[in-house]
Every structure is written in C-alpha cells, then in structure tokens.
Known about the structure:
By secondary structure, the protein is of the alpha+beta class. Helix content is about 20%, strand content about 35%.
Amino acid sequence: xxxxxxxxxxxxxxxxxxxxxxxxxxxxxxxxxxxxxxxxxxxxxxxxxxxxxxxxxxxxxxxxxxxxxxxxxxxxxxxxxxxxxxxxxxxxxxxxxxxxxxxxxxxxxxxxxxxxxxxxxxxxxxxxxxxxxxxxxxxxxxxxxxxxxxxxxxxxxxxxxxxxxxxxxxxxxxxxxxxxxxxxxxxxxxxxxxxxxxxxxxxxxxxxxxxxxxxxxxxxxxxxxxxxxxxxxxxxxxxxxxxxxxxxxxxxxxxxxxxxxxxxxxxxxxxxxxxxxxxxxxxxxxxxxxxxxxxxxxxxxxxxxxxxxxxxxxxxxxxxxxxxxxxxxxxxxxxxxxxxxxxxxxxxxxxxxxxxxxxxxxxxxxxxxxxxxxxxxxxxxxxxxxxxxxxxxxxxxxxxxxxxxxxxxxxxxxxxxxxxxxxxxxxxxxxxxxxxxxxxxxxxxxxxxxxxxxxxxxxxxxxxxxxxxxxxxxxxxxxxxxxxxxxxxxxxxxxxxxxxxxxxxxxxxxxxxxxxxxxxxxxxxxxxxxxxxxxxxxxxxxxxxxxxxxxxxxxxxxxxxxxxxxxxxxxxxxxxxxxxxxxxxxxxxxxxxxxxxxxxxxxxxxxxxxxxxxxxxxxxxxxxxxxxxxxxxxxxxxxxxxxxxxxxxxxxxxxxxxxxxx
Length: 662
C-alpha cells in the first residue's frame, strides 16, 4: 500500500482478511483503528491481521471485544463471624441516602430472617445496591460462620472484588482465612478494612501485620498483596484512610471501592450468560432466580434457555426483571453485563444453573461447593406425644420440606435411608441445627439423631475430616482447655499470648472431637472461651474418642413431673425438666452422674394422710433445671437417643422407649 492512498475501509478489510467488516471503532486521538469483523470459514478464530498505513496502524481482531460497564461496581463483604459486616452495610445504606426521611432506620437491616436477628449472625447471603457519585455499587453481605460457607462460595462467583473485614482486636480468625482463600483463588482484588478501631483493646498495627502474614501464607500474588487498607467504626459509620484521618463518614470507603474494584467486563452483543447464585420466592410470581449477567443482554419478555445441572436445556420466558436499590426491588426492562438481577418465570431453576440464549446456548461452569462433613438422621416423630403440637408430621411432609431446602441450599445433601428416615448431610452442627430450627418454626414435628462424621476410604485407608480449631480463653483456664483437647485427639499447632490476659490456642482436631465440645469448654471456662472451627482437610482415622462420660436419667412412666420426686432425684444427677412438665416412659429427664442409664420415677407424688408428720412443714429446695436448647440437646445425645423437635418443645428420648426392650 502506497503513501497518500485514500483509505477505503471496506476494501482494506476484504483484501487483507477476506472478511466483511461490521464495525469500526476508532479511538480518538490514538492512531489506532480497530476493525471488528465476522469470521469466515477460511479464517481461524483468534487470527489477527495488520496493514501499515502512513501515520496509522490498522489491527483486525476476530474475537469479540469485551467492554467494561463503568457505571457499576460489584463487591462482596467477607469476614469472620461477628466482625461487623452487617453493621457496616447498615451504615453504607444510611449514608447513601437510600432511606427516605419518613422511613424507619432498622439496625442490622440486612438480617431480615427472624433467626438471624435473634442469634446476631448472618445465615443467608443477600444483595443490596447503593449509589455513589452516579455509580451503582451492588453489595453482597455474606455469612461469617464456616457452616454457611456454601453461601460465601456462590456470592464470590458474581462479584468483581471483595472487602475483607477484620476485627481490630481479634485479628484474622479461621473463617477470615477460609473466605480470603476463596477470594484469592477467584483472583478478586481485596480491600482490607480493619473494623472496631474504637475498641479499648484494639491492636491495629499487630492486626495489620497478621493480615499480611495471612495473605503471604495463602500464596497471594504481588498484585493481591498491594491492597488498600481502611480503618472503620461501623457502628458510627466512620471510615479513615489512616488512623489520624479526621474523616467523620464513610466517603473514604466508597472512594476506595470506586478506585480499586474493577468495573464488570462483558460483551453486551454476545451470547446471553447469566449465572444464578441465589433463589427467592414470591407469592405472585413464583420462584425468582437471583444472579449476575456476564455476557449478552437480557430483556423483559425474552425467551431464554436454562442450562440445567444434568446437561439438559429448558426454554422459558422472562416474566419479570428486578434490580436491587437499597432494600427494594426495582422493575427493569433490560439487563446488561455486570447487572445483578432477580428474574421471574424460571420455575424449577436451581442455584448454579445458567440462563442463556435459546438459539445458541453457552452455559457457564457450574458453581463448585465443598463437600459436607457431617450427617444427621431426620425421621418422623413416633413419641406418645406425636401430632399434639405440630402441623406437619408425616414422612411425606418431611420429604417435601427437605426437597424444598435442597433447591435453595446447595451445601446440603439428602439421602433416603428408609420409608420415613432421611440422612441429611451438611457442613457442621450449626448449619443442620439452623435447618431444624427453621422447620420447627414452620410447624414441623420430627426427631433427629446424633451427628455422625462422613468418612471416606482412599488407598484402602479410612480417612475422617479434620478441623482447624481456634480457642480464645483467659490464661487461668489454659490447662483445662489443653487437657480437654488432648482427650479428643487434638494436636496443638500454635499458642499466642497477646498480653491482654487472654491466650489464643490453635489445634488440629478430628471433626468427631468437636461434637459436644462447645458446651464442655464453656462450662470449664465459665462461659469466657470463644471457639471457632474450620474444615482443614482429611486425616487417617484417629481411633476411638471418649464421648460423654455420664448416663441419662430416663422416665419409667408417663405423668407430670412433681417437685417431691425431683427433690429426691437431685442427688442422682442434673435434671432437665421443671415440675409440672408432662413426660412419657422412655423420655430423658436428666443427666446421671454415673456412666450408666438409670430409669427413674419423676412423677411420684407425696402420699397425703390425715396423720400429721414431724416433717410436714419442711420446705423442699429445688435446684433450677437445666433447660437445653436445640444445639445443646443435639450435642448431649448418644447413638441410642433422639432429640424430639416440635414447634413448642424440645425433648430428649431413647430410641427404644420400653425399658425391658433396651
């Protein structure tokens, strides 16, 4: 080509690449014009051609160009439990002007579930959206407890960066390591936020060093180590770039998000790809799929294909599109790459499936979730009191409820063991206890067995799950904690004394050793210990682990508990039922001080005669009964016992009620 040649773009494209040009994107003032064209069969995908022109270079690209959606940022907030994620989201919502002057401001507004508000923990990942300087920031609030790790994993699939929150006193804890490792694996850029810097025991410089150590320990790249650090008090809504920053609001945090979290990238003209990361239900619209558009454009009324987990395609029509603004859902007519949307008209869709083009489907990879490590048997209630308090009592009701849970909870598995017994597998005791608690509040009656560990065999060797356990306790209880862990096959790997009167101990312990440990440690340390465990891997079977050294006090007949009988049984052990409670034969009413089970008559009444006895006016003194909650009951039972769960009661019982058959 000669200098001074008049450029005929159409002819240049045809001659150089034998392909018709479709679009010219000329960036000014850069001397680069890019021709994008459709591939012909004679051209291999990815081929590039160049032609020299006076003062201008022409590059032909066969791959479709991806552009970034600069008006959006998608970020997940990740942290250990109780480090202040939900409180920080509250402050971000309040300062972004989401709430009108007439609207009530509710604390921990993202914890919409009644159970979450009661326990003060986040169980379900939720999405909200705020606007700052005209840019929409979609925020995913994730759970901090490792038992709900499945929620975290799928939340990280739909964001472009993470905000790692660390307590200024406690520093990085096991769940901090877990969520950070998942974020680094996904190559998500982090913003580190050291929260609660107003705590009297805050140790900010040391915690920052521990965070750097954690990043290095997790093999972070140089780019990932170059993270911005902010210091916050989420309760008062203050963020600072340095400890002496005079800032009084969260603007430095919002600015850091816009500066360090990349805009989502996608091809709006490409094949539609939207992955479903969460589910919801509407009484009017049916099931809602919540996810993010990665490529293509989704329009209200479109006919799309759902790529199912089994590889099949199911066509459906989008009947509603929503985006998230604060706590509200806003109607939309179009969704572009980077948008987080809720869509209706997708009956039967489950988490991890892809919404894609009906004509040329291109599904995204399924979301991989770590395997469950613990299992419990769920069965119908067969006690003499069955059906008194609950609305849903049959095995059919139980099966339908567990099937419904499987649709929204990807980290749970269910196997049918018999006609009316189900083996429910999950990440930990807390996750399964939360499921049982939700079921009883919905009106279900059921019985659950002792948690058991899921083992696996590799090279003819039995392996069991191993946990990384962190215990934070006062110095004077150090000996009793180490002794307790030794009995449970725990191996200490680290001990740190921060000089504050408390010691942090780290152990590797088989998952079996954690069953029933929490209540024992809290008793031994008078309620002052803090325990956190995280799945670490698998280890060869460690042999037998000593279980509860005490037996059960079992009622030998039905009736109502009397104070007279309870007074006489107090010396035998600890009582679990209050006078006036109705019991049945085979129900566990207390803990025996010895290792054997003992059948007792706890409904015995004092015989009244018309003869005055010398002891008639003696007052009996009853020790208050220990009323077990659901988690304590699950930890207490042995292999031959059940926890009977109804909407109004939690009872413990023997699997075989009759004493002469046990």
